[in-house]
Design a protein that fits this description.
The complex is a heterodimer of chains A (about 100) and B (about 170).
Chain A lengths: L3 E7 L5 E12 L4 E12 L10 E6 L7 E10 L25
Parallel strand pairs in A: 3-5
Antiparallel strand pairs in A: 1-2, 1-4, 2-3, 4-5
Chain B lengths: L5 H4 L2 H4 L10 E5 L2 E2 L4 E3 L9 E4 L7 E8 L13 E10 L8 E4 L11 E9 L17 H7 L3 E10 L11
Parallel strand pairs in B: 3-9
Antiparallel strand pairs in B: 1-2, 1-4, 5-6, 5-8, 6-7, 8-9
The chains are: A mainly beta (about 100), B mainly beta (about 170).
InterPro entries (chain B): PEBP (IPR008914), PEBP-like_sf (IPR036610), PEBP_euk (IPR035810)
Organism (chain B): Glycine soja
Family (chain B): Belongs to the phosphatidylethanolamine-binding protein family.
Chain lengths: ~100, ~170
């Protein structure tokens, strides 16, 4: 087993992430390269990974039923879009009380 | 490459032993089936002591076999690491464990939580009757034991063991 590089696609679990690893192989019938994706569960001890992060995985002993990889390194953090904060409009006349009818 | 070593991947080198070079063949058979590193076992398969065959060349060379659980009582909190299940000393080279002296009687592993690593370590002795028997099974330390008794690790193997009805389950 060797180190693999992939993209985090889920981090909803505690101390676990799902990493998608792409690979290319040559298909001799179709005479072109085909992309296939494998999804591995990996151990993330400190919950540092976010969706979209590029990570390197190391093989390890079975940590649970489906988990036998460990996140060795976060190669590239995902660019998380933060919407610009809209200025809060303060209504000056809000303190004035409407006349009683 | 060190990373390809199954003992490194399994965490045996690091948690149990320091890096070493294997120089003697060690064959551990359970129900007439030789175990390979990382083999999945159930407690019912290891009720009886495994058959351990030691390689080597000279009958005057003696070995000590140690069987420990590296993940007792649970892999996420191994406060009893290592738990000593079995120890046989004075095993002559080219024979099996039945020719040695069983100083710690066999206790079958019965993990309740998580996947436990059952590690078999073979140490080379300086001579016959040179090994001091440990007092306790729990919190046994292979490194310290080897240092105190002037033992050198020459072979190791490990298997994964989990509870009978479990299918992996959670580690935490």
């Amino acid at each position: 087993m060797k180190q693999v590089v992939g993209m985090v696609v889920s981090n909803k679990m505690q101390k676990s992430v799902v990493v998608a690893v792409d690979r290319l192989f040559y298909h001799k019938v179709y005479d072109r390269y085909v992309k296939r994706t494998s999804k591995f569960m990996a151990h993330d001890e400190n919950n540092l990974c976010n969706i979209g992060d590029k990570v390197r995985l190391d093989p390890s002993r079975p940590l649970s039923k489906h988990k036998h990889w460990v996140v060795a390194e976060i190669l590239k953090k995902a660019q998380i879009y933060v919407p610009p904060s809209t200025p809060v409009s303060v209504n000056v006349n809000s303190s004035s009380v409407a006349p009683a009818s | 490459m060190a990373r390809e070593n199954p003992l490194v991947i399994g965490g045996v080198i690091g948690d149990v032993l320091n890096p070493f070079t294997s120089s003697v063949s060690l064959t551990v058979s359970i129900n007439n089936r030789a175990i390979s590193n990382g083999l999945e076992l159930r407690p019912s398969q290891v009720v009886n002591r495994p058959r351990v065959t030691v390689g080597g060349e000279d009958l005057r060379t003696f070995y000590t076999l140690v069987m420990v659980d590296a993940d007792a009582p649970s892999p996420s909190n191994p406060v009893l690491r290592e738990y000593l299940h079995w120890m046989v000393t004075d095993i002559p080279a080219t024979t099996n464990a039945s020719f040695g002296r069983e100083v710690v009687f066999y206790e079958s592993p019965n993990p309740s939580v998580g996947i436990h690593r059952i590690v078999f370590v073979l140490f080379q002795q300086l001579g016959r009757d040179t090994v001091i028997t440990p007092e306790w099974r729990h919190n046994f330390n292979s490194r310290n034991f080897a240092e105190i008794n002037n033992l050198a690790p020459v072979a190791a193997a490990y298997a994964n063991c989990q509870r009978e009805r479990g299918c992996g389950g959670r580690r935490y």
